[in-house]
User: Fold this.
Amino acid sequence: RKEVEQDPGPFNVPEGATVAFNCTYSNSASQSFFWYRQDCRKEPKLLMSVYSSGNEDGRFTAQLNRASQYISLLIRDSKLSDSATYLCVVRGAGGTSYGKLTFGQGTILTVHP
Amino acid sequence: GAVVSQHPSWVICKSGTSVKIECRSLDFQATTMFWYRQFPKQSLMLMATSNEGSKATYEQGVEKDKFLINHASLTLSTLTVTSAHPEDSSFYICSAELGTGEQFFGPGTRLTVL
Assistant:
């Protein structure tokens, strides 16, 4: 089982749509969770951290379920500029994994007019 | 957010040569930096953790004698790909960690070995 698994998509949605991405992780001791976005041939950029209570940043809402080891990202009112690959990222908790980020394979989103 | 730079942004070299890539944290100090590699249509894979003033920690399967890492100051880490071969062609990305645990990434270096 992969450490971090995402639905690779691709997701192809019209502008204004709501889209949700799911992610699961295998290490129950994982410490921190993030969503990054990566544009083609660019570096990943932090979109948002994911907190246990859930958090929202404008059109983006992230949820974490530690019991199910599940993370989600909801994008409302999609814009053309949201087209990118969305990476679910988990930070290791302890031992040799401490501080290390493990990336999911990414979910490709294309928003069309 | 924090700014991380990388140099060069792209490099083409002949097989057998060595290539040095620099990673700098521009507006903060980073005791820990990370080096990743990303092949086409794949996600980032951690190669090594670079610690200022000490030896780097390499991930399983990454040859430390081939990928030399030096973290001589709190704002600079370098990755040298020694005796590069075509299979080393990839997108190399560094990141620097803030005290909050968030990592900010450099813009990446695209290496092509002929």
